[in-house]
Design a protein that fits this description.
Largest sheet: 2 strands, antiparallel
Oligomer: single chain
Mean pLDDT: 80
Number of helices: 4
Order of helices and strands: HHHEEH
Distance between the termini: 61 Å
Low-confidence stretches: none
Structural class: mainly alpha
Number of strands: 2
Helix content: over 70%
Length: 178
């Protein structure tokens, strides 16, 4: 009946709102980690690396080693740091993308439950419950057109004919006395 439709509507909207709140929570986690932020790591700027490479070559020349040793040392440093910082940043991005995925998933569920809530809402809105004197419930769908009016007239005439038939019944049994 109408009350159960309202309860179903409220339940579906409640689930939808909960999904939306979880989605917002995951978005906040994805983009800001609640004002804490995500810490990315990086290698030094190119100019700093260039200057350090020049200093490294000078150092290796001063201790009597070749500039090839300085280049190997520099390449090793760059490679190790690129690997370390790239791995860290990929971990941070994977974590953020996981929160974004959860947010999207909950948003889709929220939209689905919102759309599902339309069914009991429309059913409740376009269905009325009327009671006749015998407390029998009759469900009439509101259809604002001529078909509905004609259907209602036919329904009322059938009811009145049934009532007339009940009233006009007479006792047809006869008894004889001797």
């Amino acid at each position: 009946d109408g009350k159960s439709n309202n309860y179903i509507f409220i339940l579906l909207i409640g689930i939808s709102i909960m999904g939306l709140l979880i989605s917002i929570y995951n978005l906040i986690r994805a983009f800001g980690e609640f004002f804490k932020g995500y810490e990315y790591s990086s290698i030094p700027y190119a100019q700093q690396l260039y200057d350090w490479n020049i200093e490294l070559e000078k150092y290796y020349e001063n201790i009597g080693n070749s500039s090839d040793d300085a280049i190997k040392h520099f390449d090793k440093y760059i490679t190790e740091n690129l690997i370390k910082h790239t791995d860290h940043n990929m971990y941070v991005n994977d974590k953020k993308f996981a929160y974004i995925f959860k947010s999207k998933k909950n948003l889709v569920f929220s939209i689905i439950f919102t759309l599902l809530s339309v069914v009991p809402f429309l059913f409740s809105k376009y269905t009325t419950v009327k009671e006749n004197p015998q407390t029998t419930k009759i469900y009439l769908v509101k259809m604002p057109n001529k078909f509905y009016l004609e259907l209602n007239k036919i329904n009322n005439s059938i009811k009145s004919n049934k009532n007339d038939c009940k009233k006009s019944k007479t006792d047809t049994t006869t008894t004889t006395t001797r």
